[in-house]
Amino acid sequence: MVKKLNRRILNNSFWMMAEKIISIFGLIFVTSFVAKYVGPSIYGDIALSLSIFQLIQIVSLMGSDVIIFKRISKNINSGVSLIKATGRIRLLIYLILSAPVLIYFFSSSGYIYILASFLSCMFLSLDVYAIYYDACLRSKVNTIINIFGLIFSLGIRWAIAFFKYPAEWLFVPIVLTSFVPFLCRFIFFQLYEGAVKLTKKKKGLYTKHLLSSGSAFVLTSISVALYTRMSIFLLGYLQGKDVVGIFSIAATLATSWSFILYAFITSSLPSIFSEKDKLLAEKKTANLNVLIIMMSFGGIFLAIILAKKFILYFYGVEYTDAFYPLVILCFSTMLSALGAIAARYIAYFSGYSFLSKKTLVVTMLSVILNYLFIYKWGMLGAAVSTLLVELFSLTILNYFFARGVVYKLHKRTVVYGIKFKFK
User: Fold this and answer.
1) Is the predicted pLDDT of residue 375 greater than 90, yes or no?
2) What is the number of domains present in the chain?
């Protein structure tokens, strides 16, 4: 099956995986140091604020991650114009929505880290240039830039540890982890890709297009983000900040290997989006589903074997209760990746309205299941409810679209999976 993938797509996927490995490496070493130092309670505050800023980041993107990717797949110059025309509106939305959060957490003992989370997510919301290079199958550029950024930020992190500076100094590498890659990509893009000129009229048209077309993707993206974040919000309300801190470690580690899945998904999407034959698009998407399932089981197996020792070594004994939720959330990560494929497949059929309506149902389901399961079983209940929401979102709720095209896709996926098993 892998042989059927275009060699260029595979090459781009491996560069994307290299980039994410580097990013995850930095994330583990920085966040584990913070988590160990401040303990579960303050780290719970940090995790809660970060979850909110990540939601704000998604809203500020206005679905531009999907729209820009799709536009570049079909017309590079048009995609570049969209990137250049919509930067200010993304920043403005992020700042306006973040202000109340910064005010709310002002009295928190971990406010310095909350401020770092705010700035880090802000630069991530502006860094749509990474999407451009992924869509052009030039993830090598992203990888090289991220290596540079990671070396820079990790160098500062190790200096802080070596000279025994206060942990508050970790504010700097947390921010630089996203700022340095953003700055490098921005400069590189302006020098080599930014020749397209835009009039005020065109900027207005592109902004209007983003606001109108992106709303469906915003709701969908928020829905996906809420699957785990709803658990964090309700855990904070029902169980307290300590449990939030532990659960956030489980959620972070459970999704840390998903970069492998999304590397192949992202690299394969241009081929699917540009396919005019719907049957062939279905076959390509089914093949991608099988590949993602196979890779996911490998990741889940490693998590079961290694996660407990990993948590103890990097985060300390206070976080060992994160193991069982982590294993459950690994299955949720697989379903989430398959759900992302299904959402893009629905977008292939221009089912933006359906995605918007489905989001409302998923959000309500997430609130109900999380509340009931967390109230009854605490942190384990949060993990199980996340898994169930992902399952319903991937299957039953998607099957109502366009006379069951997603159901047909999943049937073909099962058939291809069985054929592959007996090859």
Assistant:
1) yes
2) 1
